[in-house]
Amino acid sequence: MKVGILGNGNVGGGARTVIARHPCGLEVKKVLARHIPAGLEGLVTTDPAEILEDPEIELVGEALNGLEPAYTYVSEALRRGKHVVSANKAMICRYFTELHALAAEHGAGLRFTPSAGGGIPWLVNLRRTLRCDRVTALRGILNGTTNYILDAMQTQGRCFEEVLAETQRMGYAEADPSADIDGLDAQRKCAISASIAFGIPVREEDVPVLGIRSVTAEDVQNFAAMGRICRLLVQVEEVAGAVSACVEPALLLPQEIECSIHACDNCISLTADEAGTLRFSGPGAGAAPTGSSLVQDMIDIAALGKAACAGNVVLDGKAVLGGDAIHSIRHPYYVRSQGKVPPELVRGGAGSAKITAPLTPQEAVQLERKLHRRDKTTFLAAILPSGKGNI
Predict the structure, then answer these.
(1) 1-40 burial, b for 16+ CB within 10 Å, e for fewer?
(2) Catalytic pick from 82, 189, 318, 340?
(3) Does residue 29 carry a catalytic annotation?
(4) How far apart are alpha carbons 129 and 131 in whole angstroms?
(5) pLDDT tens-digit readout, 143-160
(6) Nearest to residue 207, comparing CAs of 243, 250, 256?
(7) pLDDT at residue 219 is higher than 50
(8) Does 68 have pLDDT greater than 70?
(9) DSSP character at residue 175
(10) Can you tell me the distance from the alpha carbon of 29 to that of 41, in angstroms, rounded to the nearest whole number?
(11) What value does the mean pLDDT take over residues 233-259?
């Protein structure tokens, strides 16, 4: 099958290299880039029409950043009946429903395994589980940059600013690291995973989020005194057909599986009626792992051929978002702020911080916003119970 790749950066270039080494029935005919590198003049183009309008190209791999022009290009490819594989979590999250509708209308396959988990075959195994099982919960680490920062602060005693600068030098974090440290990247991956797991369109704004921008070395010392380790966690639960989701820093006991995930690795788990709890871990980003994941999706589509559309995600609407489920995720929070925490919420202290009564993630976000008006360095983290926590 002849393919075109939109983007020649880390992921697009990684996918191109993987196919060159392991063709697996795929042939890269054209690659879209802003500039044509020396030696790739016959392969790389700056004109998207050379991919989108070429009838020989049956499959398009999308590895661009941001919403546009990615959404325009992918929509056009689907309208022309071309299969699409995407690594673009922002676009997939924002236009999840629209893209699946286009794919169904035009008989095209749509896959996006590398959009959540990088090189980890997370989404493909989540979908595989759903073929004969019911998923009830998701939990784990889906952002390598924040994991690197929290791990280094905990194991090496370094400050947030120093480790963040290091991740930027290493290429893990962007010059503007907001998507990572404010939890927005994990929020999108959470929404995509929840949409698949429960057959409903979950938007990023449906997922309450707390980030790690304000975590300090003093906080990490307080965590250690509590016998806890901090990780940025994705959590999703279904209770009686209602779904609740959140992304937040969580204080875990050292024996929890997420505490053994170091540097930029990810670890995500699902809990299902029949299979129990299944965990997937490995590199959550990087040119080779994520590019390989993009190619794996291409191989799956090539194997299915014209039947690829039948393997697309189905939004069956059997569950609902919110409702009584918003109370299913509830736990105390560590709060460090110069702002005044309402006395009726305070249940104890931890060094310079306070421990609250159990709150929902929505209530915690509201509290953080209120305190942030008084103290922009305010930091909150969920304190999860031992064992499986909320899963």
Answers:
(1) bebbbbbbebbbbbbbbbbeeeeeebebbbbbbeeeeeee
(2) 189
(3) no
(4) 5
(5) 999 999 999 999 999 999
(6) 243
(7) yes
(8) yes
(9) S
(10) 12
(11) 95
